[in-house]
Prior knowledge:
Blueprint: E1 2-6, H1 9-27, E2 35-39, H2 46-57, E3 66-70, E4 72-74, H3 85-92, E5 100-101, H4 110-115, H5 124-145, E6 151-154, E7 176-179, H6 182-188, E8 201-204, H7 207-211, E9 216-220, H8 226-234, E10 252-257, H9 266-287, H10 290-296, H11 301-311, H12 317-331
The structure holds 2-amino-2-deoxy-6-O-phosphono-alpha-D-glucopyranose (GLP).
2-amino-2-deoxy-6-O-phosphono-alpha-D-glucopyranose binds near residues 41, 42, 43, 154 and 163.
Amino acid sequence: MHLQTFSTPEEASEAVANLIISRINAFGPTQHHKFVLGLPTGGTPVRVYENLAERCEAGEISFEHVISVNLDEYVGLPPTHEQSYHHFMEEHFDIPPSQTHILPGVPIHPIQIITGTDPSAASEWESDLKAHQVSCAAYEALITYLGGINLLFMGIGANGHIGFNEPGSSFESRTRVVALNEGTREANARFFEDKSRVPTHALSMGLGTILDAQEIVVLALGSNKAEAIRRAVEDGINHMTPASVLQQHERVTFVADSSAASGLKEDTKEHLKLQSQSQSHSMHLARHGAAKSLITNSTNPPIDAAIDTCTSTTGDHGQRTNARPIVTLLAKGEVLLDHSEEGDEGDSLPGL
Length: 352
Ligand code: GLP
């Protein structure tokens, strides 16, 4: 886990935009090899979206070959509703609809179409629920079809929820219909006329779906997120703080402004900051060939092969998985070029 803290919300948001841009550019998406970006809604990501739009305008980044998948949507709000997440995304993230995927808040009734079932035979809610469950299953299938999420950007709720996975959500959960907790409805009432207008349910990627993303970045702004960040980062993994499950993800970065980071111990900030720096340094080495030249000076063919895999940041899941051990070793300064005896090449990088 990595943590980056910044004095202001603007700086923290810029850091997240930088991370998104650097990952997309390093991936080098093409028409046949698209980058899949998971996206949030809410107040938190607004400055990030503004920053991305400006930098797209300036030619620093293109979303032409980026596919977005959103985390969640309110049940019952049509895309035209100004508080629907469909509407939010249209307002804040301008990529063609054909590249954008958001769960449908209004039920689509494929069961009725396929089987001819009369929805009035069941209660309206049961029928809608079934339709929503079909949409959720289809969304999971879509993410699998896209090859998984390359980078998932998220906010965090004051109660530690991510997406709409409220406290108590299963760590194995997949995209599904969830009941919103009263605290979340109260927190989100600021976007509606009053709390009674906030939907009681939502569709959300599950915690299992989130954990499957290759990389995750969580942005937290403001003092009302301080306790959630403290529990997510410093406490043990606990169902009552859904974001704490991210501790078991291999590649997650929390980005916080000073208010959101104010509940963390100084030691925690220092330690996790150092981890962030060492990782970015090792990624830089890997991307810019220093690692490769280090290795290719050796006479050890298996290491050459391994570092070729490591330096390819544009690959599929398998390549990234293979890349991690060497990058980690480089971060710790522990790559030992042990010139093994002939026929004993396999022992040259202990621990791989
Ligand atoms: C909302 C969304 C989350 C979001 C969180 C925080 O309810 N479902 O995806 O991260 O709550 O919202 P905000 O950024 O407005 O504080």
